[in-house]
Amino acid sequence: GLGRQAADAQPGVRELLASDSAETRIQAVDALSQAAPRDARLAADLAGRIDDADPRVQHRAIDVLRSLGPLGRPSLAGVIAKLKSPDADVRAAAAAFVGSHGPAAVEAVPALVAMLDAPEPKLQSLAAQTLGRLGPEARPALDPLAALLSAPDAEVREAAATAIGGLRLEPDAARPHLAKALRDESADVRRAAARAVQRFGPRGAVFIPDLILAAETKDGAAASERLLKRFERGGPDPRSVPELVAILDHEQDAVRLLAIKFLRLAGRNAKDALPSLERLADDPNAEIRKQAEAACKQIKDGPGSSA
Per-residue pLDDT averaged across 142-156, rounded? Predict the structure, then answer.
């Protein structure tokens, strides 16, 4: 309880790391972490507790090592090995430690992928979150992460969507998976997918059809329209024109209007959409007729690249 004022007691407390009592060893770990929270010697002391006979001591030692930041990095290999521990709390602590070291912990990818199959949703989520923090080095985990987008637990699906966004994939590679998450029944999962799309910047324009379709639910409409505004200046990817044309047949007028809007923003790149837009001149919705006419005019007369 004395914290740093107990520094002079460290030698005596350090001896208790070898006590026969697991409870005493745990208290020794805690006392040392409070007396010398940034001491390199502490990192060495705790490294020896990673393989303690009691998983509670392992768990606590790993947690404290994580709090040491770079000082704990020499223990990375030993902690990665604990990702296969039979104790769920130790695996969770190890995953959190690995995640705190980012891409430097690439060796942990296979063990983290294995954790995605854990029966506990908490461990699945933590493994997914950790893989997302490892960046491109974790790309081999894409398929098992994508499989978790169908998990029954919403927190697991949310973690998987976030992780896929962290792999720094090409937009086309990420799109099939994030498009699914954008239409998830859980608002948290949809928000995670939207944040992942934002990470692509202007290259995320390939997601415009998916964002438009995500607007078909009342609570998804506002979020989708906010994100779509980011792409108004650059317009849609020309490859998206056929998908936008298909959306013109959607049952909801609000969704159709968004498709018309982005076909208009595509300019001459959307010339193949003209027949479909012109047919909307007979649509029962006055606003759709108006916007379709404006889109046809801009596609015919307005600017647009031929890329």
Answer: 97
Structure tokens at 269: 């790149």
Dihedral of alpha carbons 163, 167, 171, 177, sign: negative
**Model pLDDT, residue 303:** 59
Using one digit for the tens of pLDDT, what is the confidence trace for 52-63? 999 999 999 999
Listed in sequence order, the residues at least 6 apart from 277 whose beta carbon sits closer than 8 Å to its beta carbon are 248, 260, 263, 292, 295, 296, 299
Cβ(296)–Cβ(266) below 8 Å: no
Contact predicate 206/171, CB 8 Å: yes
Distance CA 259, CA 264 (A): 9
| % of the chain beyond a pLDDT of 90 | 77
The whole-angstrom separation of Cα 53 and Cα 231 is 56
User: What is residue 294's three-state secondary structure?
Assistant: helix
Q: What is the Cα–Cα distance from 302 to 90, expressed in whole angstroms?
A: 62
Closest CA to 262 of 292, 219, 285, 289: 292
Q: Are the C-beta atoms of residues 67 and 33 closer than 8 Å to each other?
A: yes
Please check whether residue 258 is in contact with residue 265, taking contact to mean a CB–CB distance below 8 angstroms. no
30 vs 67: CA distance, rounded Å: 12
**Chain-wide mean pLDDT for the chain?**
91
Q: Count Cα neighbours of 155 within 13 Å in the Cβ-side half-sphere.
A: 8
- C-alpha dist (Å) from residue 70 to 34, 45, 57, 99, 129: 18, 15, 21, 13, 20
Q: Give start and end residues of each alpha helix (H) in 1-147.
A: 10-15, 22-35, 40-47, 55-67, 76-81, 88-100, 109-115, 121-133, 142-147
pLDDT in tens, 205-263: 999 999 999 988 777 778 888 899 999 999 999 999 999 999 999 999 999 999 999 99
